[in-house]
Design goal:
Distance between the termini: 94 Å
Shape: globular
Order of helices and strands: EEEEEEEEEEEEEEH
Structural class: mainly beta
Number of helices: 1
Largest sheet: 9 strands, mixed
Number of strands: 14
Strand content: 35-45%
Number of domains: 2
Oligomer: single chain
């Protein structure tokens, strides 16, 4: 029987789903096939090669095909996410970026791992963390439900942290709005099994960043993989509204303009 570590959090301070507005959910299974022959290293799966940065963008069906490449997704009961795009990082032209793998990350089938071995080309880049960013269109929010993480060759690891931010994370300018943090995160793989991060109250935001920081593993940071990222979308329940001070000034100005207009009309009658 498989053993799975599950981290379940309740985040009452986060926005709830909009009543009457159905949520949507897409599951990134990293199931990508390429039948063109150029990249098919294992079962038509582009193993060891960087992920296509358009995978997960504006999902409105369980499968999309462009030429010889097919993207497949898991779909939650809520539906699709046509108003959300996904980014994977960090990435550079020197060291590549997050890559795909087929097996042996615990019991997960097809995963995303940080394909850039730190400083492998002596460029000075030290990409030893994995980043997934959900970006919703204006007027919408991304809704993060859960994701799985596991260790290569069915091994357990302890890494610096697993965190979630409700804005954009940048390696040079870290985001400040961290809404979830698991320091010294225990990532399972032996068994084989995996760790699951699941949120009773989904994390919401126009932008959501998932940061898997394995800097303490050094070159072995590539041994941490992520899979089954389940996210949705909803209408933003808090559209941009002027700050109270700004609104007061606006109303005051409008009132003054109206009074001036009335005085002008009174003067004209004399």
């Amino acid at each position: 029987m498989l053993s799975v570590k599950s981290t379940i959090l309740s985040l009452p301070v986060l926005a709830l789903l909009v009543p009457g507005g159905p949520a949507k959910a897409t599951i990134l299974t990293f199931s990508i096939t390429d039948t063109g022959g150029c990249c098919s290293l294992s079962e038509d799966f582009p193993e060891g090669l960087p992920i296509d940065q358009t995978y997960g963008d504006r999902v409105n069906s369980p499968s999309t095909t462009s030429g010889a490449v097919t993207f497949n997704y898991g779909v939650g009961a809520e539906g699709y996410t046509p108003n959300v795009e996904v980014g994977y990082g960090p990435f550079s032209i020197f060291t590549g970026g997050p890559s795909l793998w087929r097996y042996d990350y615990g019991d997960l089938d097809r995963v995303l791992y940080q394909g850039s071995v730190p400083n492998q080309q002596n460029t000075g880049f030290d990409y030893d963390y994995l980043l997934i960013v959900l970006r919703a269109d204006p007027g919408f929010e991304a809704v993060l439900h859960s994701f799985d993480v596991s260790g290569w060759f069915e091994s357990d690891f302890t890494i610096d942290s697993v965190s979630v931010y409700d804005n954009e994370f940048n390696g040079f300018f870290p985001a400040q709005n961290r809404v979830f943090h698991d320091p010294n995160a225990s990532i399972l793989g032996a068994g084989p099994t995996h760790s699951t991060y699941s949120f009773n109250t989904p994390i919401t935001g126009n932008t959501i960043s998932i940061l898997i920081d394995a800097a303490n593993l050094g070159l072995d940071s590539i041994n941490i993989g992520v899979d089954n990222i389940r996210f949705g979308q909803q209408i933003d329940p808090t559209p941009n509204i002027p700050e109270p001070s700004t609104l007061s000034l606006t109303l005051l100005a409008a009132g003054g303009l109206a009074a001036w207009h009335r005085r002008g009309r009174t003067s004209d009658k004399r």
